[in-house]
Amino acid sequence: MAIEAKLIEKLGTKTELTSLVSTRIYPSERVPSQSSLPRVVYKEISSIPAGNLGGVVNYYVSLWQFDCLASTYDSAKAIAWVLYQALFSSIGSLGSGFTLVSVINPQVSDGNDLPQDGYSVGIARAILEVELTYAIG
């Protein structure tokens, strides 16, 4: 199981987040075409090895982007900050040998750009970018 699956599984236990988006937390390449709002769409932008022990890399620093989508920008932004708090409170063991070590450098920005299709009209987006450090093993 990859870090992504363990992280999203852990976020699914955070009631402050699930009370806003329920189980609508999707990887960017697997968003259902007609998923309801609000929702979170995520992707890992980059990941680099950050340390090793005896030649075995076990720490990684990764940059993640979470698009928080809602009917209003205020709602989307609120979801972004609740999501950050949920990530921060998840520091520690994620199970199956994965440990979330740190959650730093949160940045929330306005992701509202002009819609490219009729489906995205009326959807507000706040983007949370955050750096996660995790260990395997």
Number of helices: 3
Distance between the termini: 12 Å
Helix-and-strand structural type? alpha+beta
**N-to-C SSE series?**
HHEEEHEEE
How would you explain this protein's 3D organization?
- The radius of gyration is 15 Å and the shape is elongated.
- It is 23% helix and 46% strand.
- The chain has three helices and six strands, in the order ααβββαβββ.
- β4 and β5 (98-110) form a beta hairpin.
Defining key terms:
single chain; 137 residues; alpha+beta; six-stranded mixed β-sheet; 6 strands; 23% helix
Describe the protein's topology.
Blueprint: H1 3-11, H2 15-21, E1 25-27, E2 39-53, E3 56-70, H3 73-88, E4 92-95, E5 98-110, E6 124-136
Parallel strand pairs: 1-2
Antiparallel strand pairs: 2-3, 3-6, 4-5, 5-6
Task: Give a short overview.
23% of the residues lie in helices and 46% in strands. The chain has 137 residues and is an alpha+beta fold.
